[in-house]
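Entry type: protein chain
Record version: 2
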Amino acid sequence: MGLAGTAVTSGIAIGAFEWNAPFMLCVLGWIFSPIYIKAGVVTMPEYLKKRFGSNRIQFLLALLYLFLYVFNDISLEICTGAMFMRMALGLDVYLAAIVLLTITGIYTITGGFAAVVYTNTLHAGITVLGSVLLTGFAFKEVGGYQELLNNFLNTKPSIIHEGNWTAKPECYLPRLDSFHIFRDPITGDLPWPGIIFGISVISLYYWCSNQILIQMCLAGKTLSHVKGGCVLCGYLKLLLMFVVVMPGMISRILYPEKVACVVPSECEKHCGIPAGCSPMAYPVLVVELLPSGIQGLMLSALLASLMSSLPSIFNSASALFTMDIYTRMRPMATEKELMVTGRFFVIILTVVTIFWIPVIETTHSEQLFVNMQAVMSSLVPPIAAIFLLAMFCRRVTEQGAFWGLTGGLLIGFIRMVSTIVYGPQRCSANNKCPPIICDIPFLYFAIFLFVVSLLTMLAISVFTDPIPDKHLPGLCWSLRKQERVDLDAEVEWKRSRLTFQAQPDGFIKSQSCLWEVCSVFCGLEPSPGPKVAPEKEPMEEMEHGATPEGTEHSDTAESSCWRNAVNTCGILLILTTVLCHIFYH
């Protein structure tokens, strides 16, 4: 809905966000994922803890991720879902959202990550099928691709004035460069330097250091599975320009009074939002264009999209809280305690989301999309910088990484608050926002903040003692094939022994039926017997990075056949993406 809504006024340039993804997905599959798997980590803050030996970086990043998930990702999902259900289904937003959140919360809590993966796979298939069908109907109704090119630039609503106020032409006419991705670096709404470099900075975080995506790569059975999943995702991202962005532009041609309204009273009549109804472009196509049977399939697809996104966020937030925050508070927590804690954290997050719905409902939808851009461009670049340096620069130190991250977040937070306070720039209102805040494109600011954070980390690292190379193998790309001595190996080994001593040898007495039901609900099973004490586990193994809990990670070995197959598919993906950029330059 966000892509199609932006395409109504901006054209195809918004699709560049999706077409940048194939490049970063290949970077994830071939560079970042092997390092994460080799490091034996579960969460992204845990990787930085191993890399720098710093609890403060781990804790700060875990809190930052949780902030982004709750106030950015979940807010966006609930907002788009509320808009869709209000228009397409005619349901009370609060009641419908509670039902959806309850259903997704139950299967996320009971099934854990496995349930999230299987349901996401089913929902993805339904969503792709529905989107392709809608695209076919939309192009048939508008008269084909050539008619889209001919009519889009001239489409405008019939009502452009109210009383003594008349909308400016730029408020109701599409941009002249609507069918170009690379736009003027000064006057363009999405300038080409921002498209190339700014989106790459945001994508580096989203695809290569985001817990929601990385947890799926870490679950791969082999490295070939991980690469294959990244390649498949890349090809699906190429489709979004044609099955989401262009249908949004077609919606403007077919229903200009609803989708392209510019007079506040008209917009409020059509969608209840005076700022504009462009985010409703995709649901309008579904409701107005599709026949009954296919309309039901597409409505299911949109609901499936909402239901697949929220559980992924819930599961990632649960892992971050359990592994990076709760273990700091209770270092002797048993595996059973951690699992129960993760399940209850999902329950708490679901309840918080339900109470968050009225706040989101009172916020204009256009405001929420602007807030999302402000949050991403303001807080993401320092995260991208620290992961890039951690992976490729052996000289960066813990002090440089921490203060560079903190300084970048401070600058970004000031920009984010300023952008949210002044709000979106509307055609029906006077522009009171200072030029230094609103006239600088958010993609340019993302580049600036990334460079500042990067240089700060490097400058401080030069004046601090480097981390010995024996602690870096398997954590840096240049030392990925060597064995390492973990910075916190001895501490983790002692913690594992204390944890073992705190665990009971098993169930001494038979449990009640109610207790067994609770255990199954939380993913727990009765222990078959006491574990072998790790008394004789050699310290040398711990010094080489062995995991004390005996956690198994994905196999990094690849068969030559599958390695060649995924490499070929990856090369074809990159070439196809480059050709697409050239065609729509």
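Comment: The radius of gyration is 25 Å.
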